[in-house]
Amino acid sequence: MNNKSVTLKNDTIYTIGAFLKPVQVEINGIKQWRWIVVGFEDSTFLDGKEIEVFDYSETVEGLLKENEILK
Description:
Elements: E1 13-15, E2 18-27, E3 30-40, E4 44-46, E5 49-51
Antiparallel strand pairs: 1-2, 2-3, 4-5
């Protein structure tokens, strides 16, 4: 892998079906950068079934449209 320094020209990148943003997080007292999904462009699946999701929510339950898990 190339170890050259890279500067992001935009704050979001695209991967197949999703938009990613670099976010610094702290887990167990350790700070690190991680890619966080900030939007979806294509189908989303759970256990092989297509589901609809929200990009963001105030609760974890709110990320899935109502009754999606029960289908």
